[in-house]
Amino acid sequence: MKSFVFSKEKGLRKESFKALSSFIDEAKTWDNNAQQDFACWLFTLFDTSDDISPYTRSSFGKGTFKAFT
Questions:
Q1: Of 12, 14, 5, 10, nearest to 69 (Cα)?
Q2: Whose CB has fewer CB within 10 Å in the chain, the N or C terminal residue?
Q3: Residue 5 contacts residue 65 (beta carbons within 8 Å)
Q4: Any residues with CB less than 8 A from the CB of 33 and at least 6 apart, and which?
Q5: Closest CA to 54 of 22, 30, 40, 43
Q6: Closest Cα partner for 57 from 45, 65, 48, 47?
Q7: Run of H or E residues at 57
Q8: Is residue 55 part of a domain?
Q9: What are the average pLDDT values for consecutive 10-residue runs of the chain, which has 69 residues?
Q10: Measuring CA to CA, which residue among 2, 46, 48, 1 is closest to residue 27?
Q11: Residue 7 sits in which domain range?
Q12: How many folded domains does the chain comprise?
């Protein structure tokens, strides 16, 4: 996920989607509880953030996405 954000910020669209695809492939191997925890974390982040952009590191807050990288 971190690679996706950094690549997207740099304008490296192709590389960012490769990183996102790799993250999705990895997430598919997680057990159901881990997938559900991630989804809950992500939706909570969206619900509690006033200014969230999926493409900017700063919008995630300090260290927020470290839990899933």
A1: 5
A2: C
A3: yes
A4: none
A5: 43
A6: 65
A7: none
A8: no
A9: 83 90 93 94 81 52 49
A10: 1
A11: 2-49
A12: 1
Please give the DSSP secondary-structure letter assigned to residue 56: -
Q: Is the pTM of this model over 0.85?
A: no
Would you state the structure tokens that stand for residue 58, as one six-digit string? 């700063």
> So what's the pLDDT on residue 51?
62
Please name the residue that has the structure tokens 């996920």. 1
- Look-up of token digits 């960012």: 16
CA distance 50 to 67: 21
Tell me if 8 sits within 8 A of 55, measured CB to CB: yes
Residue 63's pLDDT is what? 47
The answer to whether residue 16 sits within a structural domain is yes
Residue 24 lies in a domain: yes
Domain-located, residue 9: yes
Q: How far is CA 24 from CA 13, 44, 63, in A?
A: 16, 19, 20
